[in-house]
Structures are given as structure tokens and as C-alpha cells.
Amino acid sequence: MMKLHGAMISPNVRKAIIGFNIKGVEFEANNIVPGPDLKKPEYLAINPLGLIPALQDGDLTVGDSNIILQYLDEKYPEHPLMPEDPRDRAECRWIAEYAGSALFPLCFVVFRQNFVGPNFFKEPTDQALVDETVNEKLPPVLDYLEARTPDIGFLFGADLTIADISVLAMLITAAYGSYSVDGTRWPKLAAFVSRGLEHPAVAQALQAEKQMVEMIRAAGQN
Amino acid sequence: MMKLHGAMISPNVRKAIIGFNIKGVEFEANNIVPGPDLKKPEYLAINPLGLIPALQDGDLTVGDSNIILQYLDEKYPEHPLMPEDPRDRAECRWIAEYAGSALFPLCFVVFRQNFVGPNFFKEPTDQALVDETVNEKLPPVLDYLEARTPDIGFLFGADLTIADISVLAMLITAAYGSYSVDGTRWPKLAAFVSRGLEHPAVAQALQAEKQMVEMIRAAGQN
Lengths: 222, 222
Fold this sequence. Notes:
alpha+beta
């Protein structure tokens, strides 16, 4: 059985889990949490970048959520995670990359400042940072995505691709920090997120991480 | 004709150029240089991450050298840039990613401190930074690559893949900063680099960037 390393509440690990769910393939989870454990020699032997997720399949070991998703897609061709046309494939990879580079750090700020920080680390929210993130930095990123979101279905047709999974996984992280896409300003993207959350593979991933989310929330009550 | 944005002396632009050379496809070059120009609205409309390279093919516009190489590979299947087996493909993408994340910043330090800084910007070399980069940070990265380098041919067979192109492009950047892989410590990798530099597509890329390199060297004489 393949082994997936990384805390399932991490957006990049969530991406891989959604991929496994779409393919209907079971995996063994090693719920390693970001922090000093990722810089230990044991983990650096798995992913020398010290990042999550990483996937082990026999003697193959790779990191990077987009690479893991493409590996799953090429190993299990049913329920494709990539469009077929070369142009669409390039744009699909690019949106996945853009979500990781532009959307991820902003969603993580909201997640950290509004959710994990106050609840788990008992740190006050840096409201100025949250305001700047939500009011100045996120809007152009959402504008870019809105322009690429269709009225129906997903970004490249009827089912989820690595681009959809990437965008959704990041916005779920922001949602834990009480941020949701404003449907009056980004109507297509907001509707896309609603459709995405209802997708069985996404719903299944959210169900699996619920316990960890509740644990963090409960820490805030103490 | 496709348009490639980015200074050809940048390692990530070099990667795309080597891909074009392997495919035997012509392109129009927009030699935009890293710096403030990448943050202007005109360029952000091409690549919202403000990074080079970016590729325009009609109404398709994508960034990221690995995505550009895979697009070229899927648009022009002859002279493949990817292995066939799903496991090899995953590892190929991963080594390309690793070269970009782990090798690139270190090679860039050497390039900047030993070549562009003193020659073009007339800034003294930060020798402590160079020593730390060369003596402490590069060795584990080269160890990782050495363990994956075969005695003959390239990383996944007889011809260059996106992984080979990524590793070579970064080490060429370091070579401008007078750094070369020590063949007594990393014999397979050093021999691989020698073979790579002799590859016609790589030699052609180096020839094309020669003028820019000489211009920077000449600036150092004034």
C-alpha cells in the first residue's frame, strides 16, 4: 500500500488525499505535522526539501502535491485528473502551480491568524495582517481565477482536475479561518467552490480531517 | 510563433530554450530581465507571479519552466522530454522540482556573488556566503543527485528529460560563478554534466547566451 506523509489538514496533503479518493485507492497515512519533525534526518531521507506531502510507493519516493496527483493519474488512468488536450493540460498544470504559489500563502495567513494561532498556539490574531491579506492581496488572485472559472462544471469540464483540486484545497484552508469567497464579487468562483465542496471525493477528505479540526477548535475552548 | 519571455541567461529560461532546441522548434524571444520590469502590470498580465519564464502560444499563456517543457513535449511528441513509465515520470518530475527548489537558489548565490555582482553591479563578493553555499549547502544536494545519476547516458536513458535539463541548467548558472562539480567527490554527476554540456541542444543554448555572458564579463573590465 502506498504511504502518504503529512498532516491531512495541510492543503497540499489534502490535495493528494482528494486524488486518492477520486481514484478510489487506499493509502496508509503518516500524519507527520509541519515543524521540527520535517527537518529530522528520517524525514529528510523521504523528502529532502523537508516539505509535506511526500509519497512512498515501494522504492519510489516523491514530494510535491502536483507530482503526486499526476503520478496517481498516470498509475490509475480511470477517473482522469488531467484534461486531454495539450493546451488544456498546460493551463491545468499552470493553475495548479498558481494556486500553490499565489493562493496558498494567503490562505495560510488567514488559517494561521484566525484559526490555528488563537485556538492552538494561544496567539492573538494579527488583524492588520489579516485585513491586508483579505482586502488587498487576495482580490487580484481571485480575479485571475474568476476569469478562468466556467459557469457550470469544473475548470476543464465535468470532473475535478489537479487545477480544481489545488484551488479548492487552498480555499478550504482559508475557510477554516472564516474566509469565504464573496459571491457578489466573484460569482463564478464562489459557485465553483460550492460545487467542489459537494464533490464526494472532497466531502470524504473533509470528513477525514474533521477530527483534527475539532481538536484544534476544542483547544481554543480551554 | 510561440513567444518565450525571460532573459536567456536565467537558468529557468535556459531550461525552456533547451526544450525548444531538442524539439527543433523556433520561438520568438522577449529578453525581459529580472527586476522591476517583472512587476509591471504588462508583465503581470502575462505571468501574475512576476517570474520568468512565461510562454505565450496564441491565447495560451503559462509560466513555470517545467510546465513549459511538458507543454512542448505534449505538443511535439518527437524527441520526448519525459520517460514513459509512470514511476519514472514521477521521479523525473520530482528531480526537476528538486533541482528548482534545492539546487537553483544555491547556484544562484554563486552566480550572483562571483559573477554578476562583482562584474555588473560592482558589488564585492560575500565570500562567507559563497563558502557556506559551496562547502555546506551544496554537498547534500549533490549527494542526493549523485545517488540518482547513472554511469552512462542521462538520468532516465539515452536522451535528456526535464529532470536532466533542470539539473544541467542550474549547474551551468553555478559554472558562470566559477563553480564546478568536484569529480573526485561526485564522479557520476560530474561525468553527467560533461555529457550534458556536449549535448547539441545544450551547446546551442550556451552559444545563444554567450553574448550576454560576454557583456557582463566586459562590464567587469570597465
